[in-house]
Design goal:
The protein is α/β, with parallel strands linked by helices. Helix content is 45%, strand content 15%. It folds into three domains: 213 residues, 3-Layer(aba) Sandwich (Rossmann fold), CATH 3.40.50; 78 residues, Tyrosyl-Transfer RNA Synthetase, CATH 1.10.240.10; 67 residues, Structural Genomics Hypothetical 15.5 Kd Protein In mrcA-pckA Intergenic Region, Chain A (Roll), CATH 3.10.290.10. The N and C termini lie far apart (62 Å).
Length: 395
């Protein structure tokens, strides 16, 4: 319990002591975490909350993951300097299609005694009448909304604030009421929205709701988020093993200990020993980071594939050898490299291919590709970035 009250925890409201008493009372708490379907991938920033939730599930508490299919169509204004682009129902459905599979390695949905539950808030938010929405809105003032940092910044910068953006925290707050939860879990950037739910829970249910905010993964040198879908830099829960392992190894050394704390199940005592070894010089940061990369990859792909990813990394990056077990593609003579890489999913678009070429990130037979219209006239190995290899065979 000491670990649950401290590890990855930034704040517990109304207090850590009251939450500890609730846990010690023997009451089965109903806990939820929500995530909006704003993209097709969840990332390690989400995993911090899923791991904490799984620990509470193992203690017998009732746990829910809410996929925000309705709220995603509004868009959370938190930390945004402009209104989010509103998503269509079709986009949301495409984004959410594999989310359960991405979360399943952490949370058990199949436990015969106490499975985690998966819910989507369109089920109840679509049914609210206009009168009910007005009643929700009557609990808060415009001044309360405008006190939020991002709205204050927009006013200062003379950028528009749309009325529908005020409804986002109301919708998230109503999720707590509908699910009748005792606890809501979220990152520190969600504290305002979670407190709205606490206010509504008191009004509609006459009960307290604990708000638990978890630490965000940040780079201590820059203060920026390590995992951000909007900014494009993140390690996805469904990244292939080699990519996941390599992306962890690419993280700044200063982030190693926080990643151990927030993204793994490694016991605190073991993490403390690793940190002591780093500070004393006994442990090499590279070796500790390799342990981290293997721990994280094993959660989502299993120990065997994690070990294979480690061996791949050592061979490819430490020994600078070309891997022997490469995917192969048969191409006709004269095929354009851009077309081949696009068809194989190695680049996202022709524009992506051109960007990578401009950055010197594509090689063929160990020679840098500089021509956007590069033609394949012989067999060889293509390398895209640091981690992607493809063997070209002329048919």
């Amino acid at each position: 319990m000491d670990e649950l009250l401290s590890r990855s925890i930034a704040q517990i409201l109304p207090s850590k002591e009251e939450f500890a008493r609730a846990c010690a009372s023997g009451k089965r708490l109903r806990i939820y975490i929500g995530a909006d379907a704003t993209g097709p991938q969840l990332h390690l920033g989400h995993a911090t909350n899923f791991i904490w939730l799984e620990k509470m599930r193992r203690l017998g508490h009732e746990t829910y993951i809410l996929f925000g299919d309705f709220t995603a169509m509004i868009g959370d204004p938190t930390d945004k300097s402009a209104a989010r682009v509103r998503l269509t129902q079709e986009q949301v459905e495409a984004h959410i299609a594999t989310w359960k599979e991405q979360v399943a390695p952490i949370l058990s949905f199949d436990d015969p005694v106490n499975p985690a539950h998966l819910v989507r808030n369109a089920e109840w938010l679509r049914k609210l009448s206009f009168a009910e929405v007005l009643d929700l809105a009557s609990n808060f003032t415009v001044q309360q909304m405008l006190e939020r940092d991002m709205f204050a910044r927009r006013i200062e910068e003379k950028k528009p604030i749309y009325v529908h953006e005020f409804f986002y925290p109301l919708m998230q707050g109503y999720d707590s009421v509908h699910l009748d939860v005792d606890v809501e879990l979220g990152g520190t950037d969600q504290t305002f929205n979670m407190l709205v739910g606490r206010t509504l829970q008191k009004k509609y249910r006459g009960k307290e709701k604990f708000v638990i905010s978890t630490t965000l993964l940040t780079n201590p040198s820059t203060g920026k988020k390590l995992m951000s879908k909007s900014e494009g830099g993140y390690i996805a829960l469904n990244d292939p093993p080699n990519d996941m392992y390599g992306k962890v190894m690419a993280l700044p050394d200063a982030t190693i200990m926080q990643m151990f704390l927030d993204c793994t199940f490694v016991p605190l005592a073991e993490i403390a020993a690793l940190e002591t070894g780093l500070h004393s010089g006994v442990n090499n940061p590279r070796d500790v980071k390799m342990r981290l990369a293997e721990e994280i990859t094993a959660i989502y792909h299993g120990p065997e594939r994690a070990a294979a990813a480690r061996d791949y990394f050592v061979q490819t990056f430490q020994k600078k050898e070309t891997p022997t077990d490469l995917p192969e593609v048969l191409v006709p003579p004269g095929a354009q490299l851009s077309d081949v890489l696009l068809a194989q999913g190695f680049v996202a678009s022709k524009s992506d291919f051109k960007r990578l070429v401009s950055e010197g990130a594509i090689t063929f037979c160990d020679g840098e590709v500089t021509d956007f219209n590069f033609v394949l006239d012989k067999e060889g190995v293509v390398r895209v970035g640091k981690r992607k290899f493809l063997r070209v065979v002329i048919s």
